[in-house]
Amino acid sequence: MLFDVMNQNDSPEYLERKRFFDSLLTIFGRKPVLEALQDNSVDLHRLHLAKSNRNDGIVEEIIQLANARGAEIVYHDRQGLSRISKNAKQDQGVAADLICQAYGNYKDFLANPPRSNYQLLAVDSITNPQNLGMIIRSVCAGFVDGLIIPEKGCAKLDALVIKASTGTLFRTRILRCKQLHRCLEDFRQNDQHPADVYGLSSHANAQLKDVPSDTANIFVLGNETHGVSDVVSERCNKMLAIPMNNQVESLNVAVTASLIAFRGQI
Amino acid sequence: MLFDVMNQNDSPEYLERKRFFDSLLTIFGRKPVLEALQDNSVDLHRLHLAKSNRNDGIVEEIIQLANARGAEIVYHDRQGLSRISKNAKQDQGVAADLICQAYGNYKDFLANPPRSNYQLLAVDSITNPQNLGMIIRSVCAGFVDGLIIPEKGCAKLDALVIKASTGTLFRTRILRCKQLHRCLEDFRQNDQHPADVYGLSSHANAQLKDVPSDTANIFVLGNETHGVSDVVSERCNKMLAIPMNNQVESLNVAVTASLIAFRGQI
User: Fold this and answer.
1) What is the C-alpha to C-alpha distance for residues B181 and B187, in angstroms, rounded to an integer?
2) What interface predicted TM-score (ipTM) does this complex get?
3) Is B249 left (phi over 0), alpha (psi -120 to 50) or beta?
4) DSSP B212-243
5) Least confident of A69-78, B11-20, B144-153
6) Using 50, 70 and 90 to split pLDDT, how confident is the model at B8?
7) Keywords on this record (chains A, B) (predicted)?
């Protein structure tokens, strides 16, 4: 909230703090939080607990891991905790703000991409957490530079997604944006590091393998049933298909993601 | 059973009947059977119904579709039906023998492969039906010639697999075998159309992209947790890895399947 109000302020201190808070990923639920803290590569900013928790084995273990990291532990009433977890039904009285170095706003990436011919994936309304987790896993393992996830319309980065990502979520460069179509517009219009934007569609004539790999490219994966939305399609330079045999109509979206993430490497 | 006893008989009539029975895939459950019969490319040999079925809407619809195909309908007591479905708990009083032209014994394939440099996938103990269904979908859509599935150790080709395959199971060339290691041995030792056999393993030094595509190859995918079994590994010419970044330990097995199925096409 603070940062929305201060939006006009762009002092270096402000920007650095904003970048820090943008890198925080809040997860919830006893098992997901425990598993995240058991991963040594995961940094903890703050642990949030409901005062009403009975300190059973798993909560004790979480507290120990938080203490070992020297992280702040904050106690809340149930209502306060649910404001943080944004999921009172499933938080089980536990939430954690993780510091994910690779998690941030897309604008930071665009200002300073890791290479001129950066390759990104973007998801437009992927609602199945298993698919989103598998996409994250393939992006992390593969040869693309990150995954753009809009705040609305996609599965939340919750326990199911973390599990399907086999924990790779914490190491994957995730670029957050509010609305995907505006973010893609920013990438296309950028003066210094513009990208071409491609939507995947089984009905397209152009093919994935026709896209040059020496230019910056963003590949947009659409909803499991409806494909890429109209408002996003309008921002695409071109729609692309992957050739298929036996009259198969489409590939699983996570499979499509992996074919893009490993393009030229297999 | 009949055909096991007659195993020494190889008259042309016998072989033709054997090939026909090998091509039958028995599925069960009201919705899976209905959906299969709604697919015009699926041929029905026999519909099996429990005498105890109340003929509600969905059973009526199944009977109509069977009649439209001129297929035989056989009524059984519950026990008789469960001997056919092999799954009394989930058959819901309905089973169907489908004629899948692309479903058969691996020996027929080996005697007459569609090209000299045929490419096959094989599954060794894939137990998650979603993974098996996704693998089937990628094999069907991709650029390999079929999928070897052993009778034991893998998820059964049931409603969950059919759903995850999005119905492509009925169009995918499935090569059945009893024991995978013996089947792979047959492929390697074959005089006329021998294949090289590769097991996928994230610990391997050799890489998928080093495998030539102008030779006949079989790629074996191992269990989701334990990888390729020892008895199968011993039959592999070599183990192969797919290069991965960010210390990711492994890819989802269905993703690995699709990277192989689309090798050289993306």
Assistant:
1) 10
2) 0.86
3) alpha
4) -SSS-EEEEE-BTTTBS-HHHHTT-SEEEE--
5) B11-20
6) low
7) Methyltransferase, Transferase
Contact across the interface for A252 and B247, Cβ inside 8 Å: no
Predicted pLDDT of residue B34: 93
Give pLDDT, residue B101: 76
**Does B244 contact A168 at a Cβ distance shorter than 8 Å?**
no
Q: Please list every residue in chain B whose beta carbon sits closer than 8 Å to the beta carbon of residue A247.
A: 171
Which domains does chain A show, CATH number per domain?
24-99 (3.30.1330.30), 103-261 (3.40.1280.10)
Q: What pLDDT is stored for residue A37 in this prediction?
A: 92
A245 contacts chain B (CB < 8 A): yes
Grouping H, G, I as helix, E, B as strand and the rest as coil, residue A40 is coil
Instruction: Give the closest residue to A138 by CA, choosing from A102, A178, A168.
Output: A168
Question: Confidence class of residue A55 from pLDDT cuts 50, 70 and 90?
Answer: confident
Query: What confidence score (pLDDT) does residue B1 get?
Result: 39
> Does B64 touch chain A if contact means CB atoms closer than 8 Å?
no
* Partner residue opposite A141 with nearest CB, options B166, B244, B258: B244
- Rounded to 10 degrees, the C-alpha dihedral B103/B104/B110/B116 comes to -10
